[in-house]
């Protein structure tokens, strides 16, 4: 840790000199001004003390980003984004609330219901002067995290920030970064490649089963959750890891645009389970002020018999654009996608998955549960592609939508492409409403209306919720109820 | 004081008046049977008492335990001890039977300012009550009513009643869709719950249920009014002569 801090300081010094040369002088030295250009990209790389290959990679990404059009095929209306009005490095805190008294009472109510301690509420709400990381608040002492870190080290597991990994494990980062999501993939991933500053790195050595769920909570040197996070997880031969991302409490952030990239690599016989609970601020009832969550998540099952399983519970953000996918290269590899997406009020979500079958006897399973309420609009968009050599590939897809009220929308857009005649592909889809019968049945047993909706919706999502690790499952169940409050009646 | 006192109750569904002045008094410990032909208003009466949306009381009063029942929300009525056993119990896909009942019981406990039961304590109580009704544990884990046979659904309603311990239970055509064995099992379950502090209103089309759940009072409902009241002998008479006399009288 000490070494790391020193390195950062040295790099900052370095950056400062360059910075003074390049820009007008009256700006604070540990920050870069708003906007992005080649110089900013170089500065970020320099501040992180990155090797030349990475700087070059960022620059190539940036050059391409400038030319790249915004994706326009999704069924969400995205207001134009002013990329020059965003801080890309160490954004200064802008008029955060001075105390919890200034925070939207509705958010505080939610914290209350989730049973979040006061101190952590301040962190989540971005109150000025509150610590930036929730580690202490959640686990009440760094020693817990230290204990975990020690256990991991004994097993040879690397779990650190991506910036630290660039310094401590450059060979792994160089080999795998961008190998699953190339910077040319899409506009948002491209920007992330050019300017990412935060994120996690995990490496599980051959034959090692990670003894605990890894969560960003445990990342002892966790920095503030960033706008442009980059996560890279490598499970070497015969290893297993379960990774948890996110937080059930609604998180506020001043930056509206979030463009993260997550890359997973599973080698022979390895398994990665990646679970997300996403609850970024969705904006007010009119959708004002909510987060745009444009995420590129993809896993490569490179090895034989490898497996990657995505589980997501998406309840937050004003706009969600997210398709956690699996590239099934290794023979007999398995990809899974379990998703619950809830949209209420003015939220929009276009989310789904891609399963690319390349190897023989590859199997994939997609279970998507979409719940739409208020004036929200939601689309499941999924691609199942079977390439010519994927002899015996199988896919099962099930997409269920639940509508609450008469002003919301749900759409299912499955793309299926098979170029191997032995492939077996199944697709099932349903759309339903919470029936008046079901609601009255619950009421007649003494269960209040909001609890009844939560109960019925949790039942609807059960198949997906069961795949969540225990730590998440209970909170996620509560969250589903909270997300739908006020949607009935 | 009567547990339930209905006075001149009128109720509408979709703007059509179905109940046209019901008077009924039920004391704690009593079992009342309400019989009537199809379309006489039996289900409307049970739904109006339980507070279902769309069943609107337009005139009259219903006093329950001294309180104005019609003024309460449906979940509040349930928490106050009213229970409706459904003619067609509703399926709740994915909602486990145990979770459902625990949520219901804890809602009621919360309402009365009592501490909520934890999962362990609840499961213990539930198993005991299920055993008494001859329900296997496996049935408690299945989603509520999903894929249940007619008999299983009605047994499940009886189990819910046993767990929630209502003061007034309305059984809406509990015998419909039951063969004779299932009818016996369900009736036995109900009889075990008979108690000096609890009252039952048994709504049925046929007399045969009343061979098993023997009522203290029998009322004939026709065209939205109670046209005759009597003892269990009245039910026998109806079985022999049919409803024709009363339909004409109404």
Automatic annotation (TrEMBL), chain A:
InterPro entries (UniProt xref): Fe-S_cluster_assembly_SufBD (IPR055346), SUF_FeS_clus_asmbl_SufB (IPR010231), SUF_FeS_clus_asmbl_SufBD_core (IPR000825), SUF_FeS_clus_asmbl_SufBD_sf (IPR037284), SufBD_N (IPR045595)
GO biological process: iron-sulfur cluster assembly
Residues making up the signal peptide according to the UniProt record: none
SUPFAM superfamilies to which the protein is assigned, alphabetical: Stabilizer of iron transporter SufD (SSF101960)
Ranges for domain SUF system FeS cluster assembly SufBD core: 218-460
Pfam families listed in its UniProt record: SUFBD_core (PF01458), SufBD_N (PF19295)
UniProt record similarity statement: Belongs to the iron-sulfur cluster assembly SufBD family.
Protein name per the record: Fe-S cluster assembly protein SufB
This protein's encoding gene: sufB
